[in-house]
Amino acid sequence: MFTDESPTKPTLQHTVSRAQPVIDSLSLILGPIVDSNDHSDNPAMSLLHNQTISQDIMCRLRLATSGSGTDDLCRWLYDTFQSNIADLQLVVISYIPTLAGVYLSRCISSKETFSGFEAVFLTVYSHEMVIRGAEPCSIRIPNNIRIPGSAESGKTNGKGKATATEPDSIEAMVSPALEPCNTVRATKRGLIVSVALDLYYNNISLMPVCSKIEFCEFCIIWAGQGELAGAERLDEEEDNAQEEEEENAEEKEENVDKKKEHKQKNDRCNQVPLPWELFQSVLRILGHCLLGPTNSKELKEKALKAAKCLHARALRDFDSKAMLASRSLVRLGDMIEEPIPELQPSEITADPSELEALRASIFSK
């Protein structure tokens, strides 16, 4: 006897029933705005693509008080990723650009601990370590520098000895094997964040556009070409306070000193260390934003600007690997902006005299 019920329907209902309490707990942090997802067939995916909620969470993660061990939002992100509900894990992954951007910038400009941010990164790191199984991540690159004739098997040289066969591809390691890590040390910070960015890249086709644009903006900041929005707001507040207290010379001088001190902090914040394992993860994401399928012109413009800023940063740092990789991405981006026109068959004309001269030279040999 056949029924109309799909065998996957109970599984979907079970997933929704597990995800709904987690989503409801977010309303305790953000407010009743999350209630708009109650009537969705898949509340987790609705939450992922809800721009209003996404912007609210991104703004909260940028607050000066965010990232501490008592941050409720970081706690929610940590618990949500630990729930092992795939759709909800995608929601957490979509905020990795904001987490990485704020965390890396503040680690340089502040001596405070950001255990809230680090807890999220460590749980993502542990998740990836289990999936990779203590094996390094590697890719195979086509070998385009083969010696002519060496690819033929059984080829011998003049002395009767067989020559070595050149492989068709070369294996290159992208990421080393991950080791257990319970704390985020300064020497391991770049690797741990890069693992989270790799997970973001593996799911980038499912990420909302606003998350990708956020990532491009932070890349510009890391390259030393921008500032955090919070820093800009603080500068405006200091300027307003300075105008109101012009009559008091001492207070005015103090405001100027504070502004200079804050500018120095911003300069240090812009010099975020970009080791190679972190730099290549960043370029992979930018490459998808720039060359991948998207209808967002803003995303492509932001990605190209970020690639150019990172290339300038690599030139300043004299990092040869970063220079070559970022330059290649910038050139690809420029080719998209100014595509090479294709010749039409009707535009290709041949001179009969040149053809006769070419034919004569061939038969004369």
From TrEMBL:
Major place of residence: membrane
Keyword Cell inner membrane: no
InterPro entries listed in its UniProt record: Hyccin (IPR018619)
One GO CC annotation: cytosol
Chain residue ranges for the region called Disordered: 233-266
Stretches with biased composition (Acidic residues): 234-254
Compositional bias of kind Basic and acidic residues: 255-266
Keywords in alphabetical order: Cell membrane, Cytoplasm, Membrane
A Gene Ontology biological process term: phosphatidylinositol phosphate biosynthetic process
Family matches, as Pfam families: Hyccin (PF09790)
Origin superkingdom: Eukaryota
UniProt subcellular location: Cell membrane; Cytoplasm, Cytosol
Family from the record: Belongs to the Hyccin family.
Listed name of the protein: Hyccin
Species annotation: Rhynchospora pubera
Origin organism lineage: Eukaryota, Viridiplantae, Streptophyta, Embryophyta, Tracheophyta
